[in-house]
Structures are given as structure tokens and as C-alpha cells.
Amino acid sequence: MNIDLDLSIDKMLATICIRLQEGEALPTVEELKQYLAKGGINYGVDEKALEQAIKNHGSIITVAKGESPTEPIDGVVEYKFPLKTEIKPKEDKSGNVDYFDLGFVFNVKAGDLLATKTPPVEGKPGHDVTGKALMPKKPFNPKFVAGKGAKLSEDGLSIFAEVAGTPRLIDGRVVVLQTLDVDKDVDFATGNIVFNGSVNIRGSVLSGFSVEADGDVIIAGIVEEATVKAKGNVIIRSGFEGGAKGLLQAGKSVNVKFVHNGKVFAGEDVLIESEAFFSRITAGNKIIMQGRNSQITGGNVEAGMEIRCRAIGSYKHTKTLVSAGVVPGLREKLEGVTNRIKSIEAQIKKAKELEEKFLYLKKRQKENFPQAQAEALENVQKTIESYINQKESLQKVKEEIIKTKEERKGGRIISDIIYPGVVVTIADISQEITEEIRGANVRIEEGELKFY
């Protein structure tokens, strides 16, 4: 008797064919199972199929089948708020303002459901007919984290708002950003405003008051001799009458209609519609005067890369300082680092003089050199090493500052008219204008200021 045993390529099927010679007896089911086991088939054996193989000897019968692993089910997060939103205040037909409803922004109140998660389901392992385990692939388990202003449920499958505000998905975290809407002037009725979100002010900010926000500050009215600080943008629909103490400061950009006698600092750009008179304005990137009759007169205006304005100075030859290719505070930082290096060098010199005295005594006294002085010598040497390390670190900082200054020589100043009395600076090269220049594009070439 011959029994032909065959396996599929993936070892998920096993077939046999029983071939009898004349006078031979048929095998039993148990004998076939033993035969299969010797052939390495020990999973998914079908006894009924073995009976069929005996009954229909001479035919090829599938007698064992493997089991494929079940597919896993990926986890899914469903957000109950739009992932892309735009901050814009909203009014109803009666003109009433909802303090937390900003129109296109999706607003929530404390306790609102923000997101749900359906957890992943692991697939089940399978086996081929030899008994080898077939492992399923791992399911995707999406990030599901509650950030500031949001709370994860105890079962970890829901996120709720803890405060009223605007939900956002930031770096994979569900957070609630709070936005404050003020429908009046910032004055004695409100006091100073400190807010960890964005602030929309329908009125003005009066002299002596301040507004600080972690987000943007948007002001419909005017800013007097007041302080407005934002880590985001500062947008003033009217202008800024800064006086002696007024300040606008933005981590990103400042956008204002005009600036009179004020201080303005922006990490990115400063956009001014009309004029900037007798003001200190500093931008990390650009200062763009957008109006047709825009003018910079008096004061000190500095931009990291570029200044654009129709007119700079005035026909009265008003002293006006404009600088491009200047990193705000870089000059002062370089001066501070340089002075610190000089101070450390002086300390190193003193310490080395003291070290030389100890070494001289040690050489003379040899084994009689006192232990206390030996310890003092060791401390002096450690101090010298510390000073040298500090100097090397500061030297690297200085080199980076100098490198940045060189890179900023690509700055430029563009103006239709530059009047006499204006001092133009690109990077660290300055020139006072003595004659009216029209259609000026000022930049550095070959180490000199060029006017095109």
C-alpha cells in the first residue's frame, strides 16, 4: 500500500491519496492519523476527510486545513469638533456678543464631549497544518491625549472640556484654548487684563492700562499710552498713540494703522498702514509701511531683513534712524558677551598668578609642602579650568553672533524718498543722508552701502 502525502506551498493544506495493491487491506483512521503525524501534520486534521480518503481510495482528498490569523481592527478617534478653525468674532442679529462664541470658531463649554476613541482589537493567531503559529499584524493604536483645558475619562475612551473655549488638536493633544471677548474699553471698569488665551477688544485700551495674552490680541479701537503684549499677533484696527510709556509687543507680528511716539517690538513683521512718527520700532523680519502715503519720520526703526516705506524722514531734515539686517538686541548681546570674555580673561590671569606662587612654594618645599596649600593649589587649578571652559563657551556664542551679523548683510531698505537727516544702516554699516534720494533701494555691496 502506498499513501501519497502532499503539502501546499503555504502549508495551509495537506492531501493524501491511498493506493492499494491487490489483496491489501484498507488502513484505519487511526493508522492514517499516525501516518500524518509522522509526516509532520498535526493541526487541522479532519477525521471525516480521512474516512472519505479511505472510502474513495485512489482519489486525492484534502485531509488537513490550517487556520489563517484573523485581521486586527485598528483603533479610531472621532473628533467632535472641526480640526481646522478660524478665529473671528461673531454677533447675532441684535448686535449682542457672546463672550466665547467667535463665529467661525467652534466653541465648547465645560463638560462638552470633545473626542471619543474606539480601541484597537488584536487579531487572533492562526496555524498551518504543521502546527506552526501564524501571528497577525499589530493593529494601529492612535494617540489619544487630553492637554490643557481638557480631561480624559476614567476608561480612557473619551475626552471632555474642562473649561469653556475653543478646542484644538495640537501635537496630537486635544486642548481647549480660551478666548476672551471684551465689548468695551479697557479702563477703570475692567482693570488690566491678563489672559492665557486670545483677547478680542471691541473698544480701546486707555492710558495707564495693560493687556497681556498668550495668544493674539485684537483691538478694534485705539491704543493710548498703554501696554499690549501677546505671544501671538497684535492687531490694532485703529492706531497707537504711545506717549512716553506706551508699548506694543508681539511674539509674532504687529499690524496697526499708525504709530505715534510709541515703542513697538515684533518677533516677525510690523505692518503699518500709514505713518510712524517719532517711535522706536523693532521687527525680527520686516517692517512694511503699506499705504500710498506711508512715512517714517523721527525715531529709530530696525528690521531684521527689510524696511519698505514711501518716504523716510521729512523735508525739515528730521533726524530719523532706519536699520535693516539688524537682529534686535544682537549688538547689545555681542557687547555683553565680549565684556564677559574680557572679565573672565582677567580672572584667569589673576588665578594663574596665584597658581604660579603655589607652584613655586611647592617646588622649594617639596615633601614639606603643607597639605592646606596643596588643597588650595588644586582649587585654584580647578577654578582656572572652569574659567577656560566658560571662555570657550562664550567664544562660541560670540562667533555665532558674528556669523549672524554677516548673514544679515543681505538686509535692504526700499523707499520712494529718503530725506536729508536720515541715518541709514544695513547690518553694521551706516551712512547719513545729506541730499534727497528718490527711488532708493539700499543694500550692501563690496562692503559699502549702495543706493539704487
From TrEMBL:
Domain of life of the source: Bacteria
Keyword Coiled coil: yes
Domain Flagellar Assembly Protein A N-terminal region intervals: 3-170
Keywords: Coiled coil
UniProt KW Cytoplasm keyword: no
InterPro entries: FapA, FapA_b_solenoid, FapA_N
Coiled coil feature spans: 327-407
PANTHER family listed in its UniProt record: POLYMERASE-RELATED (PTHR38032), RNA-BINDING PROTEIN KHPB N-TERMINAL DOMAIN-CONTAINING PROTEIN (PTHR38032:SF1)
Protein name in the entry: DUF342 domain-containing protein
Species for this entry: Thermodesulfobium narugense
